[in-house]
Write a structure and sequence with these properties.
Elements (H helix, E strand, L loop, with lengths): L16 H15 L7 E2 L2 H8 L3 H14 L2 E4 L3 E4 L29 H8 L26 H13 L15 H15 L8 E4 L1 H13 L5 E6 L3 H9 L3 E8 L2 E2 L1 H7 L5 E4 L13 H14 L2 E5 L24 E6 L11 E4 L5 H12 L4 H12 L2 H27 L14 E5 L6 H10 L19 E5 L5 H12 L8
Parallel strand pairs: 5-6, 5-8, 8-9, 9-10
Antiparallel strand pairs: 1-3, 2-3, 4-11, 6-7, 10-11, 12-13
Helix pairs in contact: 1-3, 2-3, 5-12, 6-12, 7-8, 13-15
């Protein structure tokens, strides 16, 4: 039901109030401001909102009902007619008062234009787990029943203050649980105080860019790399400098050549996005030494480090940092589900208060109920068990993808198994256009972003990102067959 306080009635007019109300409602119906089937308030409620008598409101309703603009349903109320007579759609009413000139076209600021045109991800937001959208976890295998039981238990006996405003840094028990998990599983050196809960890793990267750099500063970003990091830099007025990725990760030599005085480095050392490279220990130590000497910052994005199928997950870069130059970010979007919109960051001790203040200014705090559920999920051991199950499941799904691609797409796409992650890069023949291939795939109902979409400068060979984590065996096979039908004549 829509509010009707915006209806304009002129008590000084010679036109009766019921006639004015009739005309206002009629005009709203004809202009589409009241859509077909929309429910109207009762005459008593409308009279109270507008400060008129109920008889006045009833008279206007009666006339609109008689003319077919409204229809009444016994025991339900009054609604805008779903089927207006054809001739009513062409009625043009004369305004009773002067209409102001239309507002001038809206103009964005320079910063607004950047924000409006900078993509965050390479996949369309369809809301469904379409093959082969990368970055989506196995929602079909998530323990929603368990999640619901934890939520019900919390709602039955909520902690004091859980329904009031929360702390900008995050719900205390969740910050503690995250700190304990990161110390044990990722080798992160942190106290509970250093953990700040964010609305996903995207907000964490944006906070780091805004607080630690000034407009005009330079920052190294992996190329190809995560679009959201590049966008966060641009939004903060920072110039992202593309640095290529080789077999050992982000190339320090190329970074020093292109921007020797960069104030920040964004990287994903445990599992580079999107190529999947793991930064070598030597490269990690050299990068930390460079940041210390230059007094620059490193933003470490540890977005899916839990999913390593062979051996233990590699320790975080932050755990090797002795100079306090690393801001560590992580997210629950990949290991739990994206709609949760919870992530976290670990900041050096000296920056905690500044980051918490900025976090509060951004959007006060993350939803407290969801934070409480995640805290219980972690402390009761469900998180660790879920990660173990997903590792086995994702390895199985990756094997299926590799097998089916080799069978159905031999000569068109080349994939190889990888020891970690939620997607593979499908390499196309030399000279092929991955943009064209991606567009054709999308037209056939398959999301396979072009690798070139993640690049600032031309560099890597043509390829498609193939996410497999969210897909069962049948969906993978169906997706590959659809993809195969589009893989003809890809060369420029």
């Amino acid at each position: 039901m829509v509010p009707f306080t915006s209806l304009q009635l002129d008590r000084g007019s010679d036109v009766s109030l019921h006639r004015q109300l009739y005309e206002e409602l009629r005009a709203a119906v004809l202009a589409g401001r009241l859509s077909p089937g929309a429910r109207l308030p009762s005459t008593r409620t409308l009279a109270e909102e507008l400060g008129i008598s109920r008889n006045t409101a009833a008279s206007a309703f009666d006339q609109l009902l008689a003319e077919g603009y409204l229809e009444g349903k016994v025991g339900s109320g009054t609604y805008v007619a779903k089927c207006l007579p054809e001739e009513l759609l062409h009625v043009r009413t004369k305004p009773r008062r002067s209409v102001p000139d239309p507002a001038p076209a809206a103009r964005l600021s320079r910063r607004g234009k950047v924000l409006a045109t900078t993509p965050v991800c390479g996949s369309p937001d369809t809301g469904v787990s379409q093959a082969f959208r990368p970055g989506v976890p196995a929602l079909d295998a998530f323990p929603f029943d368990l999640w619901a039981r934890i939520a019900a238990r919390i709602m039955r006996r909520p902690a004091a203050g859980l329904f009031s405003y929360g702390e900008a840094g995050g719900y205390g028990p969740l910050r503690q649980a995250i700190a304990e998990y990161l110390r044990a599983a990722r080798g992160v050196n942190c106290s509970t105080h250093q953990v700040i809960v964010t609305a996903g890793s995207q907000q964490a990267i944006s906070l780091a860019a805004s607080l630690l750099l000034d407009p005009g500063d330079e920052a190294w970003v992996e190329d190809p790399g995560y679009m959201g990091a590049r966008g966060a830099m641009l939004a903060a007025g920072i110039r992202p400098v593309p640095v290529p990725v080789d077999a050992e990760g982000l190339s320090l030599a190329e970074g020093e050549l292109r921007a020797p005085d960069a104030r920040m480095v964004y990287c994903s050392p445990s599992h580079q996005y999107p190529l999947g490279v793991t930064m070598s220990l030597g490269r990690r130590m050299a990068l930390l030494d460079w940041a210390r000497r230059k007094s620059s910052w490193i933003v470490e994005d540890d977005y899916d480090s839990e999913f390593r199928y062979r051996g233990r997950p590699l320790a975080a870069l932050q755990g090797l940092d002795t100079a306090g130059r690393v801001v560590y970010t992580g997210t629950f979007s990949k290991v739990l589900f994206p709609a949760l919109r919870l992530g976290y960051m670990v900041v050096p001790e000296s920056l905690v208060d500044a980051f918490i203040s900025a976090r509060g200014l951004s959007d006060r705090h993350s939803p407290s109920i969801e934070q409480a559920i995640v805290a219980e999920f972690l402390t009761e051991g469900h998180f660790a068990r879920h990660v173990r199950r997903m590792r086995a499941l994702y390895e199985e799904r990756q094997d299926t993808l590799v097998t089916v691609v080799h069978r159905e797409l031999a000569g068109a796409i080349e994939v190889t198994s990888h020891e970690a992650g939620m997607h593979l890069v499908g390499w196309l023949p030399k000279g092929a256009s991955d943009g064209k291939a991606s567009a054709r795939a999308l037209a056939s109902g398959v999301t396979a972003p072009a690798l070139s979409l993640y690049s600032i400068r031309p560099g890597p060979p043509p390829g498609l990102l193939l996410g497999y984590a969210a897909l069962n065996g049948r969906q993978i096979r169906d997706g590959v067959r659809k993809l195969a039908s589009t893989m003809l004549d890809l060369r420029e």
